[in-house]
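Ligand-bound model needed. L-homoserine.
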Amino acid sequence: MSSRRSFRISVPASSANIGPGFDVLGIGLSLYLTLDVSVDPKHSKDSDEDPNNCLISYEPSSQGFSHVPLRSDENLITRTALYVLRCNGIRSFPSGTKVHVNNPIPLGRGLGSSGAAVVSGVVLANEIGKLGFSKQRMLDYCLMIERHPDNITAAMMGGFVGSYLRELSAAEMERKEIPLSEVLPEPAGGADTGLVPPDAPMDIGRHIKYDWCKEIRCIAIIPDFEVSTAESRGVLPGAYTAKDLVFNLQRLAVLTTALTRSPPNPELIYPAMQDRIHQPYRKTLIPGLTEILASVTPKTHPGLLGICLSGAGPTILALATHNFDLIAEEIVARFSKEGITCSWKLLEPAYDGMTVTQT
Ligand SMILES: Nc1ncnc2c1ncn2[C@@H]1O[C@H](COP(=O)(O)OP(=O)(O)OP(=O)(O)O)[C@@H](O)[C@H]1O
Ligand SMILES: N[C@@H](CCO)C(=O)O
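Prediction:
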């Protein structure tokens, strides 16, 4: 009997922060990274070319097709998987592993491409290594790699979520890979020294899934340039005034419930999506940001509920109930005045998050 296996992993894009919820709020969005995975020992020759037995390919229409690395210890998806496998005593992929990636999520635009890649990598290891982890346990591994829980939790769990990292003990903090400021800078677990990387602590991330008012849809206006999350965090200050913190906390408290109520109230939501913690500082990286956020309002554009920077930018997220084209075209036109071209997409929340299907 053949021991061939094949399955598909699907992980949604996400938008983090939603204005005041910096590093806290996220929404899974209906744009999916998929991995078609097969393990067939009869095809071991193909995968033997990779040091860890994994032949990676990308659909030509994928974002990043021309430049994402295809070596398994360099590609973010497979190096994440290798890290999880090695934590669990498995050094490499089984002979004959093939991973075909289809990625419609633009890279470095604030739509959670790295979060989706990390989630898919952890799930890949869980399936390949038959590790039997729950989504909650897989989140721990994801959070060892990408530290802010907002995109990761939305991608894994789906829907509209609030999340935080639990306080780590002194012993846990000593481990040099926690907290990582950004995505793993080095290949998984470093070079393959044969050492087992330290395992992820339990229950690093805590979350709650909110309801979502079904009339609200998500417009993503995506400029044609990248801002890396590292760069976009680099412009933030190290400390904030109590006034600015209270400004965000007050809005956050109202926003999470306002987005669940039907009919949604633009007079409550629009001001509740304002922020003083990250957006004002990121305007230096995103020409036109301040003007766009201030001038496209429910009064100028009926149907609009609220507007914010998506994740670390440069994508703008507009929440609306109707008039999607007019809202998107206005923002596209405003970016155009800055010499920036954009595309836009009308998306729904991805309520289920990551899924695995046997194929
Ligand atoms: N499908 C993928 N395959 C391989 N590498 C990927 C993939 N998706 C993302 N990456 C890596 O992640 C990088 C983008 O991560 P970054 O955190 O800067 O932006 P983002 O996740 O798109 O935005 P944000 O975190 O603000 O939502 C890419 O440049 C690439 O190195
Ligand atoms: N909360 C994060 C999301 C990007 O990963 C940020 O805004 O930097």
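Residues 16-17, 22-23, 148, 150-151, 229, 232-233, 278, 311-312 surround L-homoserine (ligand 2) (CB under 6 Å).
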